[in-house]
Amino acid sequence: xxxxxxxxxxxxxxxxxxxxxxxxxxxxxxxxxxxxxxxxxxxxxxxxxxxxxxxxxxxxxxxxxxxxxxxxxxxxxxxxxxxxxxxxxxxxxxxxxxxxxxxxxxxxxxxxxxxxxxxxxxxxxxxxxxxxxxxxxxxxxxxxxxxxxxxxxxxxxxxxxxxxxxxxxxxxxxxxxxxxxxxxxxxxxxxxxxxxxxxxxxxxxxxxxxxxxxxxxxxxxxxxxxxxxxxxxxxxxxxxxxxxxxxxxxxxxxxxxxxxxxxxxxxxxxxxxxxxxxxxxxxxxxxxxxxxxxxxxxxxxxxxxxxxxxxxxxxxxxxxxxxxxxxxxxxxxxxxxxxxxxxxxxxxxxxxxxxxxxxxxxxxxxxxxxxxxxxxxxxxxxxxxxxxxxxxxxxxxxxxxxxxxxxxxxxxxxxxxxxxxxxxxxxxxxxxxxxxx
Length: 437
Fold this sequence. Notes:
This is Sorbitol-binding protein /mannitol-binding protein. It is found in: Periplasm. Keywords: Periplasm, Signal. Pfam families: SBP_bac_1 (PF01547). The chain is an alpha/beta fold. The chain folds into 2 domains: about 5-135 and about 300-355, D-Maltodextrin-Binding Protein, domain 2 (3-Layer(aba) Sandwich), CATH 3.40.190.10; about 140-295 and about 365-430, Periplasmic binding protein-like II (D-Maltodextrin-Binding Protein, domain 2, 3-Layer(aba) Sandwich), CATH 3.40.190. It has 19 helices and 8 strands. The chain has helices at about 5-20, 35-40, 45-50, 60-75, 90-95, 115-120, 145-150, 160-170, 190-200, 220-235, 245-250, 265-270, 310-320, 325-335, 345-350, 350-355, 360-370, 395-410, 415-430; strands spanning about 25-30, 50-60, 80-85, 130-135, 140-145, 260, 280-285, 300-305. A 5-stranded mixed beta sheet has the order 2-1-3-8-4. Strands 6-5-7 form a 3-stranded antiparallel beta sheet.
């Protein structure tokens, strides 16, 4: 055998060995636009890491939450990387269910992460247990042309009274225009994210200082009455089935005068390739009622590593890639600066190219900074969280209450019945869990 043949044989064997030893990372993620975009750009990662292959499990938001929670709690080991929210990270880290992200690389620059976002992902030991892919608050997205047609001017900081009046005036059902689109789909992270944040502005709270549920108080009655009446007068048909993605599609198609939802939606409603109203969109802070709290939340979709994986090193490489400054530059290069994942890094909001391309940038940052998870309500509360309550029981409770409130929106029960049942089930579960003595 000559030297050339020997070398070719050795190279072939090494190549085959390389393929045989390639690790496959199974990544569970949500079917939001930024995550779909990331999947389309992962050739950049695999080119730099040819020994790592990626297997995507992309799920609707409620389904994703259910599956990853079940998997991590039962140590199922189906996933090597999970997309989880700000709610889960501190709870799961405390349980020892997540791997600390200690090796994201010398150039990762964790200090560049926005303090409001980073603090929610840091464990009691000061370590980062998830890396934010994008961060968000919520705000008003509205049609400037329809606002002008209604003879109104949107303030930068509107009240709920103004929003309701504008929504009714902008509604033109014969033209297929609903004055306002709001979440109605049941789920602790769907309709209850919106309604809990809105309730804060109305002076309501989930629990008093002694963990007694508060759905029997007038503030919740005012919140839910206002919401159901507004949606009946100015919302789309079938609103009780609409979550983030459904309302996004309605707004992009020109069927909503206003939409109050995640700030991350701004890049999609203002993208002329995806939105028929891209050149007509304005932005304002989430509404208040004059009590000192706005209805804006604080959230991040994050990538985390479950403690049960055998592929933590490879998983951390992917997370470092997907949440890095270089990934932001990659998206800007391929899709334009307006479409980079927002709300995670201070450097993005100091970037003149981003500021020029994203008219929503300042309002997004202002909304994120305005959210106060430690003091979310007008009255004192014993919990942390703006649109959720950071206790393990909230996932089940929030979804159950969300089903009741969705039924009230659909006209299947009265507001009073929905609140009474919410009070009953929440009191029972909190007593069972030992919060109420």
